[in-house]
Write a structure and sequence with these properties.
The complex is a heterodimer of chains A (about 80) and B (about 450).
Chain A: E1 4-9, E2 12-17, H1 22-28, E3 34-35, E4 41-42, E5 55-58, E6 61-65, E7 76-78
Chain B: E1 2-13, H1 17-27, E2 33-37, H2 62-72, E3 76-79, E4 82-88, E5 91-95, E6 99-110, E7 114-116, E8 129-130, H3 132-140, E9 149-155, H4 158-168, E10 172-178, H5 182-191, H6 196-208, E11 214-215, E12 218-224, E13 231-236, E14 239-244, E15 247-252, E16 254-256, H7 259-263, E17 268-269, E18 272-273, E19 286-288, H8 297-312, H9 316-320, H10 323-339, E20 355-357, E21 362-363, H11 364-368, H12 373-380, H13 392-400, H14 416-423
Parallel strand pairs in B: 1-2, 1-6, 2-3, 6-19, 8-15, 9-10, 9-15, 10-11
Antiparallel strand pairs in B: 4-5, 5-6, 7-16, 12-13, 13-14, 17-18, 20-21
Helix pairs in contact in B: 1-2, 1-8, 3-4, 5-10, 8-10
């Protein structure tokens, strides 16, 4: 992991180390990933793409598992969806 | 949206040790081989981000040796792709972040690995309560852990490996709580002498974890915090204790990923895929290797993967040469099963309001009114969310002795574009969409 790249989480820019996943970027921004159907804040559980708790919108694409996607420069991530 | 169609002599699903070994062996005899994995790179969970650089013939570890062997074998790696459907015999449909792919095969090797076992307890849905392997995976992917207080709980040898890894990266390990009893751990320790490499590994872990408290007969009772985790209450050898921490790493041993074998019609019994001596399932030309056949760790996965890769390319004699090695590794799997069986007290952790199904927020009280997995699905939507019961299924199996009765495509939530595009080529049954979003 060398260098940094910039992504935006809920519109706020954040610099993250190159090579990290979106789930890590969301954690670095100190945000939960999604809101459960009864309104609870949720973050990653399994870290390997099976639990879907870390899902976020990436570049407008809904329900992406943040733990399975590497950050790319300029990525727009939206958390908090149900 | 990009689409493509690929054809392989041998297609391997899963890029962990079993899959990598299977693909490397199949490919080294010239078979057109493809290997598909959901993760951004090969290695699976145990080798995640460990297949580093090597110098000449010197490999720092098994991971780099096998991944390098695979890469030079000419096999095609398809990472970031997950198989969602089997539209017809000999064809799988896989989806990636921005496209999909039809994968055609003559022989198939299923090396789908395992996930952690999760059990509900009050507060387990709080952010920063993660699987033990889950937290390790996050740290391997860049989550800073230096100076963070981590409580490690659950069951299985993974707990020690995770604790040692996190400590090496600067975490402060509050304690390791193993639900198994001292008695079964002692038996495990004695039996371990049959596997000298495991003894060496155990000694290394003991050294790396020097000074960290380890408690047997211990488990999490509840987790609490405002926005995220702040403290965990544990039952430690009969006494309740509160521990302030930043992360709870909690995994109850491992559960094999059987969705794809079930979708393909492979016979499964007692939670394991049935295979013959050559790792072939009850479906001809479909092989299975690694954790779905028994939770035996990396050694068993490597030998089973090799046998599957050899058998899939018609090299029975070479495959036979590995049978005794596999037999030894299988005995270790049986030892793991015996040692880390979950204790009945863990069935009583949930309060009525504790969420059991995290996708659909179905509480323990609502599930208590149901009589089976099917009735729970129909009446509460338990197991009907995006994870399709991968988390709550094994939990309700333990809590209520329920058994999932079928697997329906798509086995992972898939984009409508993917399904529509393939439906243009053939009839696709979409009558009961699984894992859809409301």
């Amino acid at each position: 992991m060398q260098g940094q790249l910039n992504v935006r989480i809920n519109g706020t820019p954040i610099a993250v180390p190159a090579g990290v996943t979106v789930a890590v970027a969301v954690a670095l921004a100190e945000r939960p990933c999604r809101t459960s159907v009864t309104g609870e804040a949720r973050g990653p559980l399994c870290g390997m793409g099976i639990c879907f708790e870390c899902r976020v919108a990436i570049n407008g694409k809904l329900h992406c598992r943040a733990c399975q996607v590497l950050c790319e420069s300029g990525m727009e991530v939206e958390t908090g969806s149900r | 949206m990009t689409e493509s169609q690929l054809h392989f002599d041998v297609l391997v699903i899963g890029g962990g040790p079993a899959g990598v070994a299977a693909a490397a062996r199949a490919s080294d005899c010239g078979a057109r081989t493809g290997i598909v994995d959901d993760n951004p790179s090969l290695g699976g969970q145990i080798w995640r981000n460990e297949a580093g650089q090597h110098e000449g013939d010197h490999y720092p570890n098994d991971a780099s040796h096998w991944v390098q062997r695979l890469c030079t074998s000419g096999a095609t790696s398809l990472c970031g792709m997950r198989v969602v459907h089997r539209p017809e015999a000999g064809v799988l449909l896989a989806e990636s972040f921005d496209g999909f792919c039809e994968l055609r095969y003559e022989k198939l090797v299923l090396a789908t690995g395992a996930r952690e076992g999760f059990l509900p307890f009050p507060g387990w849905t709080l952010p920063n309560v993660m699987g033990a392997g889950g937290l390790q995976a996050m740290v391997k992917c860049g989550l800073p852990i230096r100076g963070k207080r981590v409580l490690v709980t659950g069951s299985g040898p993974l707990l020690l490996a995770v604790a040692a890894y996190l400590r090496k990266h600067g975490a402060e390990i509050s304690m390791i709580c193993e639900q198994a009893s001292w008695r079964s751990l002692a038996r495990f320790g004695l039996a371990l002498s049959n596997w000298p490499a495991k003894v060496a590994q155990g000694i290394r872990l003991k050294r790396e974890l020097a000074g960290v408290a380890f408690a047997a007969n211990s488990w999490p009772v509840s987790a609490s915090g405002q926005q995220a985790l702040e403290a965990v209450t544990i039952m430690r050898a009969g006494k309740v204790e509160d521990i302030a921490c930043d992360y709870l790493a909690c995994g109850f041993h491992l559960v094999p990923n059987l969705e794809l074998p079930l979708l393909l019609g492979c016979a499964v019994g007692h939670g394991r895929v049935h295979v013959d001596d050559f790792q072939e399932t009850t479906v001809p030309s479909v092989f299975c290797a690694g954790e779905p056949t028994s939770i035996g760790g990396v050694d068993l996965a490597l030998v089973e993967g090799q046998i599957a890769g050899l058998a899939a390319t018609g090299r029975a004699t070479e495959a036979r040469g590995l049978f005794s090695q596999r037999q030894k590794a299988r005995r270790f799997a049986q030892l793991l099963d015996r040692t880390f069986r979950l204790r009945p007290e863990l069935k009583t952790l949930s309060l009525p309001e504790t969420m059991v199904c995290r996708c659909e927020d179905v509480s323990y009280a609502r599930l208590q009114q149901c009589t089976s997995w099917r009735s729970a699905k129909l009446h509460t939507r338990c197991g009907m969310g995006p994870c399709q019961g991968r988390v709550c299924g094994p939990a309700t199996q333990f809590l209520f002795d329920w058994h999932p009765d079928s697997v329906r495509p798509p086995v992972f939530p898939a984009r409508v574009e993917t399904l529509v595009a393939t439906a243009q080529h053939r009839e696709l049954h979409l009558s009961e969409p699984a894992g859809g979003h409301r």
